[in-house]
Amino acid sequence: MAKEVKKTGFAFGKENYRILIIGVVIVIIGYLLMIGGGSDDPNQFNANEIFSTRRIIISPIVILTGFVVVLFGIMKKSKD
């Protein structure tokens, strides 16, 4: 008869946690790219600053990339 060996410890290995942290940092960078564009004067609207390429295109792509990296870090099989 074969004995079942229960493996105790963390759910993820070191590499998984590294990938997760990298993904979270990428998501934070994406959100930091999105901030700004406000005006001190509430009667002034600057559409060029609010709807800039950085805020509308680049930032969401960076955020989605970060979420994909986090998902990869979760799904990657641990070698331990």
Description:
By secondary structure, the protein is mainly alpha-helical. It has one domain. 60% of the residues lie in helices and 0% in strands. Helix 1 (14-34) runs antiparallel to helix 3. The model has no long low-confidence stretch (mean pLDDT 87).
- The strand count comes to 0
The overall average pLDDT, rounded, is 87
- Helix vs. strand class: mainly alpha
Taking pLDDT < 50 over at least 5 consecutive residues as the criterion, the unreliable ranges are none
Q: Note the quaternary state here.
A: single chain
Q: Assign a percent range to the helix content.
A: 55-70%
Please tally the helical runs, counting DSSP H or I stretches of 4 or more residues: 3
The H-and-E topology, N to C, reads as HHH
- Taking the alpha carbons of the first and last residues, their distance comes to 25 Å
Number of separate domains = 1
Radius of gyration equals 21 Å
Query: How would you describe the shape?
Result: rod-shaped
Task: Note the beta-strand portion.
Answer: under 5%
Largest sheet: none
Brief digest:
The protein is mostly helical. It has helices at residues 14-34, 47-50, 53-75.
